[in-house]
Amino acid sequence: MGFVTKTFQACRWRPRGLIGVANIQNNPATAIHLQLKTLLRRVQDLAGFIVKSVRLTDDAKGKPRIEAVLAADPRFKRRCSCCGEPGRVHDHMKERQWHFVPLWGIPVILRYTPCRVICPTGGATVEAMPWSRGKSPYAVAYMLFLARWARRLSWKETASVFQTSWEAVRRSVEWVVEWGLENRVLTGVTALGIDELHWGRGKKSENFVTLIYQIDAGVRRLLWIGHKRKEATLKEGFAFLENQCDGFLAGLRVICSDMWKPYLKVIAKKAGWALNVLDPFHIAKHLNLAVDTVRRGEQSRLRDKQAKAKVKGARFLLLKRGTRVRGKARAKLKAVLGSLGATSRAWELKESFRKFWQYRSPTWAAAYLQAWTTRALRSRLEPMRKVAKMLRSHEDLLLNYFRAKREYNSGVVEGLNNKARVELARSFGHRSFNILKLVLYHTLGSLPEPPSTHKFC
Questions:
Q1: What average pLDDT does this structure show over 86-114?
Q2: What value does the mean pLDDT of the chain take?
Q3: What residue numbers bound the domain in which 13 lies?
Q4: I need a labelling partner for 199 at 20 to 30 A (CA). Which of 76, 83, 215, 367 fits?
């Protein structure tokens, strides 16, 4: 480049864009000089093109940047960007610039004057350039670079660290996600997890998204995301996956979901042959809510100050699994259960239902469920009676957990949902559903990436 003249002990700089690197381990007295041209060709496919020159210049704000001027190799014919076949040069266009991966924090710009070629099957089209995609001002390697860093950092932080714009990061992620969705393989999917995720403010349907995960052993990924949590939303998701892979629904064996009625209806209609396994997590949530409702009602009726002080702060002790309450907390729990009779009965019903999940035979599990719901219905505790009626109405779906050999549950789905919440928290939320969809596909979809000659992170 002709801009560095300082001499180091182990390596020295040369003009015309040479980087000095010393191989001190092999021979301390020998310095290996690497050209920026060679480095550029190593990290970017430039078949059919040559690096004419590399120079250090200043941008409009006076900041340094590296410009690499490219030219067509006269030994190769120009190729059409549509079909990839060689064609005759029609005319030349204006010089274009592409942002490339920065070097040592210095922006790198690729400059080239493209031409139009006569396509063998059509008219004049822009020639194929391996570093460019369409009219994007960002090189392919640069978009992959930003997209990979966007998985580790927020989009705003990625743009700030690498001195680019938020829009550049968005376009890079969008291109990588679209390429991954078109080239992913959906064959061999046998188990799905379906759940909703709260997004936005309020409890309206518009503030939820429907997520479809693959939960096969060794493959856990996001397959589809849709706005709202209605029957039409899940039907749209099934139709999308069926269009991408013929016979996708026919290959399903297990579907894990909660007891949300719109989901259950669509699953029974579109994939009725698959075992619909209900989520034990949500059932435990209903039981805990019933116990807490009984406690609040009974505790509000206390009038004695000493009795109130005795049961104060007992909420989370009652919701926690009884076998995990030890020490002083165990003594506190016993005192609370001795003071609140109705709460004690509700807590005992909640704890005894844990035995239901320990069975292996659907027949014995059904017998225990029948006995437990009978006890709950006779308990004269209305919250527990509602849970018992709900479990009886979903008895067949509950027993699918045992028919599936207890191999599938929604614990994996809840774990993936937690990762999705982390992405929302890291970016302080997303106002647009399209941006949320890109983020979740990019981080949870395990999508394939476009081929590249070098991985920068």
A1: 91
A2: 88
A3: 1-43
A4: 215
Signed CA dihedral, 104, 105, 111, 117: sign only: positive
Task: Report yes or no on 314 lying in a domain.
Answer: yes
Residues 448 and 136: beta-carbon distance below 8 Å: no
Q: Which two tokens stand for residue 173?
A: 């992620």
Going by C-alpha positions, the residue among 127, 123, 69 that lies closest to residue 93 is: 127
pLDDT tens for 167-215 read 999 999 999 999 999 999 999 999 999 999 998 788 888 889 999 999 9
- Give 257: exposed, middle or buried? Use CB within 10 Å, 0-12, 13-18, 19+: buried
DSSP strand pairing (275-278 vs 254-257): parallel
CA distance 303 to 317: 22
258 phi and psi angles, rounded to 5 deg: -95, -165
Residues 6+ apart with CB under 8 A from 357: 280, 401, 406
Token digits for 417? 């949902």
- pLDDT tens readout for residues 396-454: 999 999 999 988 888 889 899 999 999 888 877 777 899 999 999 999 999 999 988 88
Residue pair 195/258 in contact by the 8 Å Cβ criterion: yes
Residue 351 half-sphere exposure toward CB, CA atoms < 13 A: 15
- Whole-angstrom CA distances from 223 to 176, 210, 281, 363, 411 are 16, 11, 22, 34, 17
In a domain, 177, yes or no: no
